[in-house]
Amino acid sequence: MAKSKSEKPVKFEDAIEQLESIIERIESGEVGLEDCLTQYEQGMSLIKQCRQVLTKAEKKIAELAPDVKGGLKVDDDVIEGEAD
User: Which residue, among 48, 7, 13, 49, has the nearest Cα to 21 in the 3D structure?
Assistant: First the structure.
């Protein structure tokens, strides 16, 4: 039986590695049609998890991004940067 790798979240790097493996198996023709569909479903689940991780990271980066005056913006507070 095929193991469901989408039941619990995996680390981002592990998900990417699993996706690469799935792509290689599908593209090489190693798997039959039914297994290909199962692999595709697992891949789509992994992609969804990766997108969630990336979205969360983008939000965090946006929170920490420097403002136009050179200060560091953290949750609507601005920490003044040193002027050159």
Answer: 13
